[in-house]
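Ligand: zinc ion. Inputs:
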Amino acid sequence: MNNILRIAIQKSGRLSEDSLKLIKECGIRFDNGAGKLKTAATNFPAEILFLRDDDIPGYVEDGVAHLGIVGENVSEESARNVETVHRLGFSKCRLSIGVLREHDYQGLKDLEGKSIATTYPRLLGKYLKENNVSAQIHEISGSVEIAPSIGLADAVCDIVSSGSTLLSNGLKEVETIFRSEAVMIASKHLSEQQQELLDQLLFRIKAVQVAKN
Ligand code: ATP
Ligand code: ZN
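Predicted complex:
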């Protein structure tokens, strides 16, 4: 089993389509029958695993998957011991702090002593610490944007791409704390053959990217 590459990608979500497309553009063919959790490539020694994005860094750290495609936001928040081997340029977004639109926001010092709801406690904590702001981090698992309007928190820290979700919840974006795109992560325990396969794959990915620019 140490002579194939197992590649984990998101099963269904914002990363899925571009992840599949990238693998196909690298000339790797496989049958992705609906609902499959695992599939073998037919013309390259690889298997594709279809997972929830949040599980990918852990699988790669453990070596259950050798490679993974995830948002850098998810990879960084997970703090897993994996190698970021390539930036893929899709699924661009940012992690931002938002406050109620009527809040006369002047700057980071306004967040001192306030509570901020987020699903990214680690990245937010790091940012606050670097900026010497002490605020309470309120970790919640979803629907972060409604927190201020229901009085659960003073502010939010969440993923933004166009900003329309913030707007429709009466919020405005006031600070960007992290810029993200999809990245390829790799296990730190690859066999020599797997490292060679990874090099071949990266060579193909770079060729695809050059052809597009
Ligand atoms: P899963 O069911 O796999 O856990 P999810 O709901 O956590 O999926 P998606 O919403 O599909 O995840 O987002 C996957 C990644 O896409 C995000 O982690 C982020 O890197 C990127 N992304 C790009 N734009 C956005 C956006 N507008 N909102 C959320 N994520 C975005
Ligand atoms: Zn997820």
